[in-house]
């Protein structure tokens, strides 16, 4: 009970002083695996597999230094813990002013975090595969497999793979209905939530709503209806409520070392999806969307060739000269990752949502893969392709990377092409010297960053020369001195402009 809120339930506590445990450990992360192989013919094998695979539980971190009675002396980073009073010893619950909101306050102390009791549960994938492996020649094997998995218990803090229950202090539809409100489908009711409880629109319809004596009438109707009106939003952290789906056809060809050649090539056709939620109180409103890591097509190839000893040549000097040269490459080509749709700028008092797409309007003004984009003068995305939902109404999904993403709204493709060549010098048995030159971005491709996808309703920023420096559909080239532009792909941060072709000379002695 919180005496600062008229005795209503809702006061901050800490594990250290409540002698309780906020988060339960999960002891059942057992991962059985099963693999089966059946030889149909001497050259054909059917393989299958199934298993539970667990990820890591999220780090549970909270910063409470701003919520204690007093800070350590000055701004010293270190204190003598043996000095009496060197470290403050807060007592919780502590209802002194500044420790919990005074009556009617919902700002200035709204940064509380509530942890889901299952936050320590690691994400789990139920994964399976079935495939056919066939020997084409003595050294060439081809395999085709269906690989799928279903993920559960993903934390909302995991980028692109979950949608956490957002707030502990949300108002339920039942509470809204008790006051005759339906802000989900009635725009007028939605907009009424941002009015103060002392305003005429609220009092004329609902009368004066006071959660407890002394509650300020300058608070909004939405805050007054919350389960804990003494606070505003309370983030529910690390809620393992995300779900994922993955299905793929994976083809692999492996040329074992023969006549100096070794090569592996893989092709994946896949779809990666996640659960998105618009209303946590209505599970039926949940839907699926592709993940921010979705790449429908991905091709990888690794090729290595070593010139064998030409036994047909009679001249020993020429045989030594042409043998043991090596050349290799690592190549990757794939679909671009999804872009994040623009967030609606219209008013919605129950959370942010995306803008709607306009039927018939192209998403792009220029193909991101054309190699013809001038970032200073080109707006590559079409601002007319997006429109705000009306005030008080919802867009097609929640905003952000955990919202609704589109398969046809993607970043540019970013191939990776690396090459190496060199020579092995066989000194004698067990001694070998290899000199190799390695080249990154061998074709010297220029790769620019992602266009800005926020607020298509605002005109892009231009200087006197007409050059863009920001705005929707612009690839921003304005950088601070010494700053490194970057993009993120598959969780890896790369250069905005890929580094030009670079070479490294390596000498390796093996003994």
Q: Shape, please?
A: elongated
Q: Please give the count of helices.
A: 6
Helicity level: under 10%
Main beta-sheet strand count, sense and barrel state: 12 strands, antiparallel
Instruction: Count the E strands.
Output: 20
End-to-end CA span: 73 Å
The arrangement of helices and strands along the chain is: HEEEEEHHHHEEEEEHEEEEEEEEEE
Low-pLDDT residue intervals, each spanning 5 or more residues: 64-78, 157-163, 478-483, 487-497
Mean pLDDT: 82
Architecture overview:
It is built from 6 helices and 20 strands. The chain starts with 14 loop residues before the first helix and ends with a strand. The relative contact order is 0.10. Strands 1, 2, 4, 5, 7, 8, 9, 10, 11, 14, 15 and 20 form a 12-stranded antiparallel sheet that branches. The protein has a two-stranded parallel ribbon with strand order 3-6.
Would you summarize the structure shown here?
The protein is mainly β.
SSE topology:
Layout: H1 15-18, E1 33-41, E2 44-54, E3 113-115, E4 124-137, E5 140-154, H2 173-178, H3 187-192, H4 200-206, H5 221-224, E6 235-237, E7 242-258, E8 261-276, E9 287-290, E10 297-306, H6 316-322, E11 325-334, E12 356-357, E13 386-387, E14 416-428, E15 431-440, E16 461-462, E17 468-470, E18 486-489, E19 492-495, E20 502-510
Parallel strand pairs: 3-6
Antiparallel strand pairs: 1-2, 2-4, 4-5, 5-7, 7-8, 8-9, 8-10, 10-11, 11-14, 12-13, 14-15, 15-20, 16-17, 18-19
